[in-house]
């Protein structure tokens, strides 16, 4: 991607921000810590350093995706959960990407023709957790420190059954494929890519920014309304709103379309 020729993009894009957490990059600058802790409902005094220590005694402590360079061409499909995937026939196209990143509960079973079979990565947090295949990377988005504690608990004591709501005490997932998004990356997506609109970015939007950092070509599926203007999941009928709440869906949308306009991503609108 020709990153260097675009002021709008360069103003937002920070190539040195760590995307995934490891022991070495885990120290949080004071302002990051303050912002991240501000997202959390509970002000319990949890020792972040101890939690990180425990995390990386259980899960891989690696410098993931630090191989960017002109010879790398990693293609990624970021698959949101919009109802516009139904009748899209995108299945094969989605599966043709090196990485297929799915989000939260979005299933493949029963929807293969439209969403594909393959899941290399699944982004989740305790409240949205589902069981994963052995070859899928779990990518935890830690909106709060409790989410990290939950991940630890799922493979050890299994004592965490509630956050602000009931959560699974364990899930099926390959321990050796677990990745944890860096808390500073959530702040970065908010400050740089949303220009501090809303309270914090939606999971789908953070996933898109994540893909901009670890992929060389990013194609977006399952984002936005259907062609007749309804907002729902492809796998259920509940309406999903992105205009109110903590997320500024309109700003996220404008930013996505700017990215497309600047040839940084492609958006597949579906049906
Ligand atoms: O609803 P959920 O948060 O699981 O969806 C994951 C992501 O998919 C959202 O964050 C959003 O970016 C995208 N989505 C969408 N339109 C919908 C449903 C989901 O853009 N109707």
Automatic annotation (TrEMBL):
Substrate binds at residues 40, 81, 104, 164, 200, 204, 224, 233, 247. One of its GO terms (cellular component) is extracellular region. It catalyses: a ganglioside GM1 (d18:1(4E)) + CMP-N-acetyl-beta-neuraminate = a ganglioside GD1a (d18:1(4E)) + CMP + H(+); a beta-D-galactosyl-(1->3)-N-acetyl-alpha-D-galactosaminyl derivative + CMP-N-acetyl-beta-neuraminate = an N-acetyl-alpha-neuraminyl-(2->3)-beta-D-galactosyl-(1->3)-N-acetyl-alpha-D-galactosaminyl derivative + CMP + H(+); a ganglioside GA1 (d18:1(4E)) + CMP-N-acetyl-beta-neuraminate = a ganglioside GM1b (d18:1(4E)) + CMP + H(+); a ganglioside GA1 + CMP-N-acetyl-beta-neuraminate = a ganglioside GM1b + CMP + H(+). Its main location: Golgi. Keywords: Disulfide bond, Glycoprotein, Glycosyltransferase, Golgi apparatus, Lipid metabolism, Membrane, Secreted, Signal-anchor, Transferase, Transmembrane, Transmembrane helix. Homodimer; disulfide-linked. Homodimer formation occurs in the endoplasmic reticulum. This is CMP-N-acetylneuraminate-beta-galactosamide-alpha-2,3-sialyltransferase 1.
């Amino acid at each position: 991607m020709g990153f260097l020729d675009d002021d709008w993009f360069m103003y937002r894009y920070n190539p040195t921000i760590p995307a995934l957490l490891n022991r070495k990059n885990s120290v949080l600058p004071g302002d990051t810590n303050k912002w991240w802790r501000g997202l959390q409902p509970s002000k319990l005094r949890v020792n972040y350093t101890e939690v990180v220590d425990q995390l990386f005694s259980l899960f891989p402590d690696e410098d993931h995706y630090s191989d960017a360079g002109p010879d790398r061409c990693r293609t990624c499909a970021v698959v949101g959960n919009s109802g516009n995937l139904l009748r899209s026939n995108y299945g094969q196209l989605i599966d043709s990407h090196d990485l297929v990143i799915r989000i939260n509960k979005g299933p493949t079973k029963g929807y293969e023709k439209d969403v594909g079979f393959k899941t290399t990565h699944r982004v989740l947090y305790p409240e949205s957790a589902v069981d994963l295949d052995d070859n899928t990377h779990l990518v935890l988005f830690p909106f709060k420190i409790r989410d990290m504690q939950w991940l630890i608990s799922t493979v050890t004591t299994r004592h965490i059954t509630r956050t602000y709501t009931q959560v699974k005490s364990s899930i099926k997932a390959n321990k050796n494929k677990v990745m944890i998004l860096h808390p500073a990356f959530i702040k970065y997506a908010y400050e740089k890519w949303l220009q501090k609109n809303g309270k914090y970015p939606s999971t789908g939007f953070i996933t898109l920014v994540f893909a901009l950092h670890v992929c060389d070509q990013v194609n977006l599926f399952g984002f936005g309304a259907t062609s007749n203007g309804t907002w729902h999941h492809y796998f259920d009928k509940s309406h999903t709103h992105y205009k109110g709440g903590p997320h500024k869906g309109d700003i996220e949308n404008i930013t996505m379309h700017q990215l497309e306009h600047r040839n940084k991503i492609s958006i597949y609108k579906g049906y």
